Amino acid sequence: MQMISDMLLAAGAFGAAIYCYVLALRLKKFSTLESGMGGAIAVLSAQVDDMTRALDRARTAATGSASSLEALNQRAESVAARLEILLAAMHDLPDPKPEPVADRTEVDRKVRFVRRRSAGREMEAAE
């Protein structure tokens, strides 16, 4: 009985050794930097670093643009307020005096130029 248990123990140890060997081969293939998953992980890690830097630059630019836009918005609001005050002041001005009617008829006339072709010339064809 002891011999059977020793053989079963040896078979279990041999099976565990084969299992560990297979796992070691898979891990070696997995961790190679040139061709395995290690290379893919290294490339992805570099891309994540690049994207993080690009995101930081974009965030900085957006913050600068937002502050610039806010300053322009405040400036526009102050100019709009000044324009409203000027427009309100325009209502207080007296109306201009109307011009005499006789002068208006001369101003309203428009000068017209009429071109006439001479009767003797025929139209020439374009070449």
Give the averaged pLDDT, no decimals: 82
Largest sheet: none
Order of helices and strands: HHH
**Number of helical segments with 4 or more residues:** 3
Number of strands: 0
User: Level of helix content?
Assistant: over 70%
C-alpha Rg (nearest Å)? 47 Å
Structural class: mainly alpha
**Domains, number:** 2
Q: Could you list the spans in which at least 5 consecutive residues all have pLDDT below 50?
A: none
**What would the principal axes of the Cα set say about the shape?**
elongated
Short description:
By secondary structure, the protein is an all-alpha fold.
Task: Give a verbal description of the structure.
It is a single chain. The mean pLDDT is 82. With 127 residues, the protein is mainly alpha-helical. It folds into 2 domains: 1-31; 33-94. It has 3 helices and no strands.
Secondary-structure map:
Layout: H1 2-31, H2 37-90, H3 101-108
State the main characteristics:
elongated, single chain, 0% strand, mainly alpha, 2 domains, 127 residues, 3 helices, 72% helix
